[in-house]
Amino acid sequence: MFDDVFALKLLTIMVLLFVTLIGIGLLTVAAMYVVDITQRKHTIRRNYPVIGRFRYWFEHLGEFFRQYFFAMDREEMPFNRAERAWVYRAAKNLDLNLAFGSTRDLNPSGTVLFLNSAFPTLERDAAMPSAVTIGPYCRQPYTTSAFFHISGMSYGALSAPAVRALSRGAAKAGCWLNTGEGGLSPFHEEGGCDLVFQLGTAKYGARDMDGRLSDEKLTQLAAREAVKMFEIKLSQGAKPGKGGILPAEKVSAEIAAIRGIPEGHPSISPNGHPDIRSVEDLLDMIDHIRQVTGKPVGFKTVLGDKQWLRDMVAAIRLRGIDRAPDFITLDSADGGTGAAPQPLMDYVGLPLKESLPWLCSLLQEAGLKDRIRVIASGKLINPSMVAWAIACGADFITSARGFMFSLGCIQAMQCHKNTCPTGVTTHDPKLQRGLDPTDKAERVAHYHRNLTYSVGLIAHACGVPEPRLLRRHHVHMVLQSGLSQPLNELYPEPITLIDNGESSPALDSNPKEVTHE
Fold first, then answer.
1. I want to staple 423 with a disulfide (CB 3.0 to 4.6 A). Which of 41, 121, 188, 435 is the partner?
2. Global pTM?
3. Nearest Cα to 150, choosing from 436, 407, 487, 473?
4. pLDDT tens digit string along 95-143?
5. What is the DSSP letter of 155?
């Protein structure tokens, strides 16, 4: 009898709860109906009350469904699933071999193919990457044999655990870590890796109270053993012609102190350096920082207009080779981790496939290729494109998004919203919990080592003992016709000039376009 009464009461409660939930649901729908039919901002919702709301929901979810269910392995942008999967496997140190043939279509225009040698390099003849020195005219030149490094990502744009993991991983891998334009944080130094201090248009971390470049701050930075080089950022792939953007919600007291800016306010850098308005200004700034710090100084840019680089080469010949930049970091128009206006991201600047061979040819023709080291950046996350960049003439390659993937990034496209689900680009402690710096540092190191090894495999297949010996004649590029052509025919390598006082296309004050463009 007691059990029957209890069951009846339980059933009554459940019925009441059900009716209450139905009632709340109906009231909610009614409220949504009234709101939708009276609002004037959204046509779909006004014409189709309540039901129209599903459009926006599906539009939001569509991005995630395409990533996991509908897009093929080679279809996604900016990085497809096959590219990301290789990085994930490399970072986890898993088997990188595949079965049953490639899924890559070899017919689209621009496809890169390496020419295997009939007599590949034997394992016994394989060599480690040779060492390269940057800044031979500095008081403290920098020499490294690693050709793959971590590109500029600021603390602030990245979370503390992410920067910690990158610093520790870079130290394990023996590569450098670029600080990004947000200044030098304790997390960059934590792992003990080599650092490149990036000087953005706002001079974060090296500015005085008025926002001008401070020699005192530069001297303090240069005194740190870990800081090996200084990079002046003129522009970056995500937003050439626009400064860095850090939303107000990411500007904590700590970040404000590191950058020298007000807490809780958006951190928006100028779209250019107010004190660098010409080639002469740039060379003056490079030489000034080099004299103050004693360390190599170069600049980062996205190539658009080319004349200014010809003018720079001419100015170097007048000033002397010791006054040249120690390196140029060339970013691609499709590079960049930062949030940016879509018109700049989609339409401004030249992609690396065009700009890198041109820059290397210009420097080689002017006899500056061994003086000014070229660092290539922009979507170079897999061995094939790293090997291509080296063959084109790059001395080093840097990657940001490749190392973000090694940290666990899933390309959720939430970098600027402080809602990154993997904790890489968020300052939300709940979301950061999933990113263990100790574990991810190992993955950073694994990714670097596996990529370096895989580039070596390509070099050995082409018949050279180490990656730095790859040249343009080792590479073919597929044309619109579907047939391929040697890269050294598409972008001929010019003969190096001998300084005899004669003019040349690279140095002429009013040059014609050279053939390798």
1. 435
2. 0.83
3. 407
4. 888 777 777 788 888 899 999 999 999 999 999 999 999 999 999 999 9
5. B
